[in-house]
User: What shape does this take?
Amino acid sequence: MQISGDPNRFLSLASTIDQELLRPSMMAIEMHAGQCLYASGDEVRKVFFPHSGLVVMTMSIHNRPAAGIVLIGNDGVIGGLSATACAPANCNAEVLISGRATWIPAVEYRFALAQSAAISNLAARFDNALMAQAQQTALCNATHHVQARFCRWLLEIYDRTGSTIPLKQATLGRMLGVRRTTVTMVSVRLEKDGVLRSRRGSIEIMKRDDLERHCCECYQRAKSFAKTVFVAGDKDQSLATANAAAAPVPTSAVRQ
Amino acid sequence: MPLYTFELRDGTDLLEDEIGVSLPDRDDALEYARGVARELMTGREVRARTWQLNVYENRSHRVFEIPFVALDATLNHLNADLRSTIETVCSRQLALREAVSAVQITLRESRALVARSRGKPYLATCLGERTIRDT
Assistant: This one.
């Protein structure tokens, strides 16, 4: 199965042999802004690998999505952690920006993890990076002011989608857990400083460096941690692959 | 429902939310505006406590002026007199910052006007704002 657009990072990091393990059960999907891939408490039956677009994991309060926790673009996997644990979804997966993805059934994902130590290792690294991003968001929400947090979100989105961010201020407000007017005031301030240009329904980043200057340290911390996880993982990968080749296939690795 | 719009005085500019929100009455508008002020101030109280949020009804008349310092929870441990003094200082500090900002803009405009009258190059815009304002 072929899909256009940028490759998903997980799939591109998987070896050719591991890709062949996943490929037979892969399906393509168009993700539409506003679509909910799964809601908190749902059984996670699919694991998504975005190639474009952006998905945000949100937590709900009073049965309404209230705040964004992590962003996942073509640099991540959606539902992998819950699928591995056979656990219900611990948050909502909402499509923020439309795009394309491939998905495989959760049961096939678990089978692939059991079959290949390399895929298992890769999944663990992605889960680790995801957890780190969530933990950084928790710290950021507790300690940093709304302008710094707004800049962090814009940078996170910029890195995944480009300089024009097709999101309304109300949506960004919901992600930050603040009122729309608060986002407007912060946005107008940054616009007067020449950092960005706000349009109805979108924000254009004019000076990325200045945006980074207005941002809190959480952006760089999360970014450098993710980099470290993947660099360290790459060093261990050859060893893990070699060990996996020598080890027998586990008895639990049987298709359900 | 009336439309409430907002204007933030941060010492250098008037930042406006021209879209506004429709709310049932002024009590809701006040609660909403206080929420906005708290959200803007949290985590940077020392800097933002001098700011003020103005609320307009149906884009016409100002119905509330909310000084951030009045909502600053980090000052709750102070007695009423001391708090009142700080609120007065914050109000004056905001006025002073706005005056300094206005002087800087006028200076920049004056330099540009003199340069233009002498046929020399001058700063035409600064961050998207015309240096020489329309009369």
